[in-house]
Amino acid sequence: xxxxxxxxxxxxxxxxxxxxxxxxxxxxxxxxxxxxxxxxxxxxxxxxxxxxxxxxxxxxxxxxxxxxxxxxxxxxxxxxxxxxxxxxxxxxxxxxxxxxxxxxxxxxxxxxxxxxxxxxxxxxxxxxxxxxxxxxxxxxxxxxxxxxxxxxxxxxxxxxxxxxxxxxxxxxxxxxxxxxxxxxxxxxxxxxxxxxxxxxxxxxxxxxxxxxxxxxxxxxxxx
Length: 223
Ligand code: IYR
Fold this sequence. Notes:
Order of helices and strands: HHEHHHEEEHEHEH
Number of domains: 1
Radius of gyration: 20 Å
Low-confidence stretches: none
Number of strands: 6
Strand content: 5-15%
Largest sheet: 4 strands, antiparallel
CATH architecture: 3-Layer(aba) Sandwich
Helix content: 25-40%
Structural class: alpha+beta
Strand order of the largest sheet: 1-2-6-5
Distance between the termini: 43 Å
CATH superfamily: NADH Oxidase
Shape: globular
Bound molecules: 3-iodo-tyrosine
């Protein structure tokens, strides 16, 4: 049986071209300052700020509006210590055995290795899980979700922008494999770890690699 569509009116404010340009120049000025940071101050950050950033992430569009994401905020120091130990165990194997020579060369400018102090130093981790399906609460049957990675990717983009807007630094960390995160956080079996995002203020001695971004003419194609 199909659900009766319920619809509500929708409109957006019509901005002048000048206003559109002004707003987007300002947004670019702000977002182009975002950098992935690997050295954090351990000063705690307000939970309310994280909640508000996650509320923004939750506005993302998703396949069939299934909102197939969970955001787990980990501030507990003991848990972060356990996560770090597992992360480093997997990363050591990745750097020593799983990653190709070319991959290691490509990472050289970033200066990454298997040692991940930021998992413990950052005051919070936001571990994002994707819900590969939804269990039916009554029967336990599986209801499908759609475009789960795309949906979660968009939500994480909004999350990173929101945290940056609040002056907080982030790192999109993808240990591989990362199923240990679901185990350590005791997530239900229909959730798979998608990204681990340390969040905090950069440490006072933080540095980032001197990278540049592709100019518009390398990423925009007009037809
Ligand atoms: N997950 C590893 C390796 C790594 C892979 C890519 I692709 C990066 O852009 C950065 C790191 C690590 O976190 O070190």
